[in-house]
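Write out a sequence, fold above all:
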Amino acid sequence: MNLTYSQLLKNNRNFRNLLWGQFVSEMGNWFNFIAGLGLVRVVSDASPMAAGVLFLARLLPFALFSPIAGTFVDRFSRRQVMIWSDIVRVFVALAFLLVTSADDLWIAYAATVMLSTFGAFFEGAKNAATPNMTGKDGLLAGTALMFSTRFLLMAIGSALGGFAAFYFGYKIAFIINAASFAASAFSVWLIPEEATRDDETAVRMKDKAERESFFTELKEGFRYTVQNHFALTILIMNVIWATGGGAINVVFERMGGVYYAEKESWNPDLAVGILWFASGLGLFIGMLLAHRTEAILERRNSRVSFIGWALIIHGILFSVGGIMPSLWLLAVFCFISRAIVGVEYAVQETMFQRSLPDYIRGRISTLDRGAEMTIFSLSSYFASLAIYGISPQTLTIISGILSASAGVVWFMREKGRRGEKEKGRKGDGLLSEA
C-alpha cells in the first residue's frame, strides 16, 4: 500500500522538515542560477563560451564528487553532512557579490564549483536518508514530493529569479540564495540522527572495527552497480538521456535569452525564466500525477512499457518545440514534454530506491547521479560549442532526439533481462527433469 501525499505530510514531521529544507534551498539555488547566468552574460558580452564554462562549473563538480559523497554519507552522519554542507554554502553564495567585470569571472566560476561540490554531499545524504524517513509505504509519495517541489521551485524560482534580477539587480538574488542555505541548515538540524538510517546500518556504523576502508567501500559501490542488472540499467539509461538533456541549459539560454529576445523583443532574463518556469511546472505536475499513475501501472503490470514509451514521447515533443515560431509555443511543448518525463522519473526512481539496501544506498544513488551529471555537464559544454555552427532550433531538435533514445535503451535492457530469466527457468526445468 502506498501512502498518499497528505498522509505522509500529516504524520511524518521528520520528512516535513527535510522537505522544507530542500524547498528553501532550491528556491535560493534558482535565484542564484538565473542571476549568475545573467551576470555572466552581461560582463562577458553574451559569450556562449562564458555561459558554457558556467554550466560546466555548475554540473561537473557535482558529477565528479558524487561517488565520493555517496561513500561518505554511508559511513558518517547523514544529518551532519547536510547541515555543514548548507553552512559552507551560505558563505560561498555571497562570493558572487564580488563579480563586477570580466576580470572577475573566475570568482563566479570558483563559487559555482564550490556550490556544486558541497551540493553533491547534501544531495547524497538527503537521497540516502529519504527512504528511511518515509518507510516503504511512503517512498513513492516521498520521492514524488521531493522531486515535484524541486521542479516546482525550478518553475517559481527561475521566474522569480528573472523578475528579481530585472527589477532589483543580481545582488539581491545572491543574498537570497545565501539566506536559503541558512534556513535549510536549521530545518535539517530539527531532524533526529536516528531518523536518517535503519537500525542495521546504525549498528554497522558503530562497529568501526568491522568496517572496511573508505576506498574499499567506494569500490564496493561500483562493483554492486556493475553486477546488478537493474542498477546498471538505470545508470546506462540516465547517461543516455543526459547526452541530450544536458543541452537544455544552452537551448534555453540561446532560444530565450538571444533568439526570442531579439525576434520578439523579450527581456533576456525574463525569456530564459519563462522557459525554465514551463519546464519546472511540467515536471512538478508530472510528479504529482505519479501516485495515481503508479496505481494504474500496478494493476496492469505495465511499468516497463510505460517507462520506455514515456521517455521516447517526451523527447520527440521537445524536438518539435524547436520549430515553434514563438517563445510561448516553445514553452508549451517544454511543459508537456517535462510533465510526461516527470511521471516517468517518479515511477523509475521509486523502483530504483526500493531495490537498494540501506547500507549501500548512498553510494549507488550518487554513483548513478554522478554518471548522469558527468554526461549532462559535458553535453551542456559541447552544446555551447556547437551553437557556433548550428542554430538554437537545430540544437533543440537534436537534444530531444538524444533524450528519447534513452527509452530505446530501456527496452533493449529489459528485453535482455527477461531473456536471461527465461533461460534460467528453462535451465531449472532441465535440472529438475534430470
